[in-house]
């Protein structure tokens, strides 16, 4: 089993509400700057949240994160 599959439930529960929002936003065709504007935070804040999400769900790319989110009903 891959890390994404074996730790899916644990990772979903470990994500904060804001991290789930950011993860859902990653599925849209928008830049980090646009996500930041939508969420009323700085681009650096979004970058930090994205890094945290990637670490918690065990991925390293945006496409992997989007696939993980879809597989776990976050969208």
From TrEMBL:
The keyword DNA-binding applies. Keywords: DNA-binding, Transcription, Transcription regulation. InterPro entries: Sig_transdc_resp-reg_C-effctor, Tscrpt_reg_LuxR_C, WH-like_DNA-bd_sf. This is Helix-turn-helix transcriptional regulator. The keyword Protein biosynthesis does not apply. PANTHER family: DNA-BINDING TRANSCRIPTIONAL ACTIVATOR DEVR_DOSR. Residues 8-73 form the HTH luxR-type domain.
């Amino acid at each position: 089993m891959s890390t994404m599959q074996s730790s899916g439930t644990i990772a979903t529960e470990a994500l904060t509400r804001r991290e789930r929002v950011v993860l859902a936003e990653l599925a849209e065709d928008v830049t980090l700057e646009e996500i930041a504007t939508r969420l009323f935070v700085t681009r650096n804040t979004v970058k930090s949240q994205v890094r945290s999400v990637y670490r918690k769900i065990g991925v390293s790319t945006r496409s992997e994160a989007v696939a993980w989110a879809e597989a776990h009903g976050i969208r």
